[in-house]
Amino acid sequence: MLYKLYLLAGLILLAVSLYQLKQSVDFISGSKRVIGTVTSLEEIDGAYSPVFTVTTKENGEIIYHHASASSPAGWSVGEEAIFLYNPENPGSVRLMSYFWLFSWAIFFMGIAIPLIIMGGGYYFLNPLTRWPVKSNT
User: Fold this and answer.
1) 3-state DSSP helix/strand/coil percent for the chain, to nearest 5?
2) Range 57-72 average pLDDT
3) Are 50 and 38 in contact (CB under 8 A)?
4) Residue-wise burial string across 66-79, b where 16 or more C-beta atoms lie within 10 A, e elsewhere
5) How far apart are CA 49 and CA 96, in angstroms?
6) What SS3 class is residue 53?
7) pTM of the entire structure?
């Protein structure tokens, strides 16, 4: 019975993963590339997180606080990186990196596939494991 829950959870997570993938691809296709420059480093519990100033094509500036931090600092002031942003929603800036664009889709897919294999395998192979019962009549 538990294998049915595995299969169901795997299919739900697969659907969530495909939805996240579609959201990421839609964001990439409707976004513009811009350059961002590290203007400062924030110290959070002994780790350093870069703060970027991203200049958009419309000459607006967006301050982007990167989500990851490291010790020692992985970025230095003055370094540049490529960002993507939606011109209709300038607050939707993302670092142009495979991980930062597709992380949730990969995460959900990585959990969904083993659940589908385990649950589906038991679901479809369970009838084959039953031995035929011979009657003595």
Assistant:
1) 45, 30, 25
2) 85
3) yes
4) beebeeebebeeee
5) 17
6) strand
7) 0.77
27 to 38, 89, 107: CA distances (angstroms): 23, 11, 18
Give the chain's end-to-end CA distance (angstroms, integer). Answer: 33
Q: Mean pLDDT in the chain?
A: 89
Which strand ranges, in their side-by-side order, compose the sheet holding 32-44? 61-65, 47-55, 32-44, 80-86, 89-95
Confidence category of residue 133, pLDDT binned at 50, 70, 90: low
Show Cβ contacts of residue 41 under 8 Å, excluding neighbours closer than 6 positions. 48, 49, 50, 51, 73, 75, 76, 77
What's residue 125's pLDDT?
Answer: 82
pLDDT on residue 128 = 73
Residue 116 in contact with residue 11, Cβ under 8 Å? Answer: yes
